[in-house]
Amino acid sequence: MLVLIGAIAGADVVFAMDSIPAVFGLTRDPYLVLAANVFALLGLRHLYFLIGGLLDRLVYLSAGLSAILGFIGLKLIAEALSDSGVHHIGPVPVPHIGTGISLGVIGGVLAVVTVVSLVATRNRRAEARALSSSRSARPAERPPRPARPSGSHH
Hints:
This protein has helices at residues 2-26, 30-42, 47-54, 61-83, 99-137, and strands at 88-89, 92-93. By secondary structure, the protein is an all-alpha fold.
């Protein structure tokens, strides 16, 4: 039992550590970073059960999460360049991406991915139903075999 509790606590800590770069992509306020990780440790991991049931329907979620992580990575690079005094890369200015824009991009990507995934899975289910109903409406191609008598082998 002790090993199980340790494994669960370890998974919670790994989950919280994994979210630190994402939180820093939104804010540098230490209180918000700490609060976000405390909430992660307190049980946001349990949402995996809810999301696990939805993963069959959210087929494009991994692509959306990849886009979000790429955006956060670019935002962190832009902030690091700006903090280092680099305000232009050649003729291109280093952009400043605010928290509102970051939240808008993240929410927008998740909304688009969710809608597109749900439409795609609804279309797939409708096609599967249509295919199964057309198969059941079609007459059998060959008659079923008669059952063999189980007693004698003459």
